[in-house]
C-alpha cells in the first residue's frame, strides 16, 4: 500500500495535473499543438539528451544494459507488427500501434520512479542510499536508447503512413536530436569542461522544459480529441505495453543473467506507460493522433496499478537487501 501511495502521489498525480492544465488551457485559448510539439522535438528533447549524455558517467558494464534496451525495442517492434498484421490494421493504425508498444516513458516517469524506489525503504542503509547511483545510471542508459529510437525509428514509423520512405528518412536527418548524441560524446572526450561555456545554462533550461512541455502538449491534444474509451485497439496496446513489457523484460533479464539492482531497475523500467512523445509524433505526422493520445492517457492512468505489482515482484525475484 505504501508503494502504491508513493507512485500515485509522486508520479501519477503530478503528471495528470500538468496534463489537465494543458487540457484546460486549450479549452480556454485554443493552443497550437504543432507549435508545442516542434518546441519539444527541436529544442527541449535535444537539450535533454545532450546534457544527460555529457554529465553521466556510463561504466563499461552498462554496455550490456544498452544492448538489453536495444533488444527490448526490437522485440517489441516484432510483437507489435505481428499483432497488427493479425488484426489487419491499415498502415496508419499499424504505425501508431507499434510505436505505442515500442516506446515507453523512461524519462518523465521511469527516471523519477527509479529514483524514488531506490532512495526509500528498504534500500536505505544507515541513512545512506548505496544502490541509488547504480539504479539511476542503469535507467539513464535505457533512457538514452529510448530517446534515440523514439526520435528516429518512431518518426520513421509514423511517416510511412503519409510519406515515401526516402522523405521519412529526410525528415529524420533534419531532427536535431540525432546530432545531439555524437556532439555530447565528442565533447565529453575533449579535455575541457563544457559546463563552463555560456551556452550550458541555456541547454539546462531546455532540458528542464522537456517534461512540462511534453505533458502540456498531451493535454492540449487530448482536449482536441474525442475521447471514447471504447476502442478495443487502445486497450490491446495498453495491455501489451503494461503487461507484455515486464514479461519480455523478465525473459531478457534471465538470459542476460542480470541480478540485484540492475535487474530490478530494468524490470521496473520496462513496465512504465507509453511515452508522451508517441502522441506528439502522431500529431507531427497526423498519424492517428486520436488513437495515440487515448493510448498514452490510458496507459499512464492504469500504470498506477501495474507498476505497484511490478515493483513488488522485482524485489521478490531479484533481492538486494
Layout of helices and strands, plus pairs?
Layout: H1 2-29, H2 33-55, H3 62-87, H4 91-102, H5 106-117, H6 132-160, H7 165-173, H8 177-189, H9 199-223, H10 232-256, H11 260-269, H12 276-284, H13 289-317
Helix pairs in contact: 1-5, 1-9, 1-13, 2-6, 2-8, 2-9, 2-12, 3-4, 3-6, 3-10, 4-6, 4-10, 4-13, 5-6, 6-7, 6-11, 6-12, 9-12, 10-11, 10-13, 11-13, 12-13
Structural notes for this entry:
It is a single chain. The protein is mainly α and 321 residues long. Helix content is 78%, strand content 0%. The chain starts with a helix and ends with a helix.
In whole angstroms, the N-to-C terminal distance is 20 Å
Average pLDDT reading: 85
Which regions contain 5 or more consecutive residues with pLDDT less than 50? none
Coarse shape: globular
Helical content class: over 70%
Individual helix count: 13
| Residue fraction in strands | under 5%
Let me know the number of strands.
Answer: 0
Run of helices and strands: HHHHHHHHHHHHH
> Helix/strand/pairing class, anyone?
mainly alpha
Radius of gyration: 19 Å
Describe the biggest sheet?
A: none
Summarize the entry for a quick read:
This protein is an all-alpha fold.
Structure keywords:
321 residues; globular
